[in-house]
Specification:
Chain lengths: 253, 303
């Protein structure tokens, strides 16, 4: 418990997490506002209100990576390990605090986007959250943000450099996952197992048929069910995070 | 008490610390002396469990650092004053450290007061001068009221006032019965601070003795003699002492390896008049250079 308080003090006593949280909320909700304000002619579906969640996800992953890379950058990781020499428990405490915070920001971004769409859309008759799938489209974003933060923490702890960690995350998510589809013959098969592609299906997949026209809406590719897709993404995040714990434990600080 | 036995650290093919064994006693200031790159910081990091020894072991109060319970209450260390997040306030920095070892918040205010940073506790540490950063680092080391304190080059870059303050502070800590282990690459600094010395070069132990003994051993007896019968004295001394040089201008002999008393008695026995017989104290830096010259990692290229 005390270690959770330690990580909370560390996170909130510097400015960058605050900026990242604001930016994550602002980018997600702001872009949704533009979409909602321009939604004409048809009732706005729930999926339309959460379409921009990835913007916030990347910003929150940067925040999570920073939470560990700045410790390496400024040498406070050495004080951390000096204070708690087993190394693993402060890293777990950091993960718990950062994931909780990221999850809350994810929920705020999701429900903020959804609420603003309700206000701005011409026709919000389809926006009501009536089914389990509707709730998953919105509330699921909190889970994705938390899992994404865990993945970013793992990458940050492995790479130790802010620029390196952020580049890896953004280049992978924004470039690599799209470019692999261009590989002849096997590209599509690889792409549908890429983590950020798969987790899209958790948010966008299997919408209620009544809520959206056949074939419309954002792509949701992959072999797994929506919840299976989330388990896959979270599993990858957890695996990389555990590898980072092993490395941090063995490496010279 | 800190005890190292056979401590060895390799970084790839570089041997940073090589079979180092030493003991740091409580109640004294022990200097850890060696040229830059000798392995002082690496050794200190191994004491704190930050770097893993390739071989050997080091214990604090008989325990591995890893097995210490709430280690900040046993060992306080300042290895690098810059290990602070620049946008975090001095107080917040100490607060998270204190919380991690369940040290009460009021201790944070106490140590800030002790090092004289109370006025600037809310300012961001990135704006601190080097002297203030060092004080903040020392405050962090003192948080847990530890029995063992380690400082790595604490006076580097400080003004004379800051140096004096740290020196007196370390003496007070040792007088309380604490173990104080402080590194430096300057013997002249250590001569004024430390009672015991552990001297290393290229990762190996060169000597572990009291500072006074180290200086005595390292500086040869040198005596300067002036006499109207200098040539006769030179003949008498020949074979018993090394005669460095008779500076022609002022007619003096510089004699190594014998006590002044020996020359005085020799002169009296042979009826030689002496105009000057003065012991010359060797410079500390010369002594240090002499001891470590084999083991300096980076020589100046012009030699």
């Amino acid at each position: 418990m005390t270690l959770l308080a330690v990580e909370r003090i560390k996170l909130f006593s510097t400015r960058s997490p605050w900026w990242c949280m604001l930016l994550a909320l602002g980018s997600t909700i702001g872009i949704t506002a533009i979409i909602a304000a321009n939604w004409d002619g048809a009732p706005m579906p729930v999926l339309g209100a959460v379409f921009s969640y990835t913007f916030g996800l990347f910003v929150i992953m940067v925040m999570a990576a920073l939470a560990v890379t700045t410790e390496y950058r400024f040498g406070t990781i050495k004080s951390t390990f000096q204070a708690v020499p087993d190394r693993v428990s402060p890293m777990i405490a950091k993960a718990v605090v950062v994931m909780l915070l990221s999850g809350l920001v994810g929920l705020a971004a999701a429900f903020g986007s959804w609420g603003l769409s309700w206000v701005l859309a011409d026709d919000n008759s389809d926006l009501a959250l009536t089914t389990a799938n509707d709730w998953r489209h919105v509330a699921g974003i909190g889970l994705v943000f938390a899992a994404g933060a865990l993945l970013a923490l793992g990458i940050g702890a492995l790479v130790r450099h802010t620029a390196g960690a952020v580049s890896i995350i953004l280049v992978f998510a924004l470039v690599v996952e799209n470019v692999v589809a261009l590989i002849p013959n096997i590209g599509d098969d690889i792409q549908k197992w890429m983590p950020f592609t798969v987790v899209n299906k958790f948010i966008f997949g299997d919408p209620d048929p009544s809520a959206i026209p056949e074939g419309a809406g954002p792509p949701a590719i992959g072999e797994l069910s929506p919840w299976g897709s989330f388990a896959y993404f979270a599993g990858i995040a957890l695996a990389i995070y555990i590898i980072s714990l092993v490395v941090v434990k063995r490496r010279d600080a | 008490m800190i005890e190292a036995t056979g401590l060895t650290k390799h970084y790839g093919r570089t041997v940073a610390v090589d079979d180092l064994s030493f003991t740091v006693e409580a109640g004294r200031v022990t200097g850890f002396l060696g040229p830059n790159g000798a392995g002082k910081s690496t050794t200190m990091r191994m004491i704190l469990g930050l770097d893993r020894p390739t071989r050997g072991r080091v214990t604090v109060d008989g325990q591995d650092y890893q097995s210490l319970h709430k280690p900040l209450r046993t060992v306080g260390a300042l290895l690098d004053a810059k290990w602070v997040h620049p946008n975090r306030s001095a107080r917040a920095h100490l607060q998270w450290l204190a919380r991690s070892n369940q040290i009460p918040d009021k201790r944070v205010d106490e140590v800030l007061e002790m090092v004289g940073l109370t006025q600037v506790a809310k300012r961001r540490a990135g704006g601190f001068s080097l002297g203030m950063s060092q004080r903040l680092g020392i405050a962090g080391a003192l948080l847990g009221d530890p029995k063992v304190l380690m400082f790595d080059e604490p006076v580097n870059g400080l003004d004379p006032e800051g140096i004096l303050w740290i020196r007196q502070f370390m003496h007070r800590l040792a007088d309380d019965g604490r173990t104080v282990f402080v590194s430096s690459h300057l013997l002249s600094e250590m001569a004024q601070t430390a009672q015991d010395l552990i001297v290393i070069g290229r990762g190996r132990l060169i000597s572990q003795t009291s500072t006074a003994q180290f200086i005595k051993d390292a500086t040869e007896d040198t005596v300067r003699v002036r006499s109207p019968q200098l040539e006769r004295l030179r003949e008498l001394l020949d074979g018993r002492a090394r005669i460095a040089d008779a500076a022609a201008s002022d007619g003096a002999l510089v004699v190594h390896g014998v006590e002044p008393a020996f020359i005085g008695e020799l002169a009296a026995a042979n009826g030689i008049t002496l105009h000057e017989l003065s012991p010359q104290l060797g410079s500390l830096e010369e002594a240090f250079m002499q001891l470590t010259k084999e083991s300096v990692e980076y020589h100046a290229a012009s030699d």
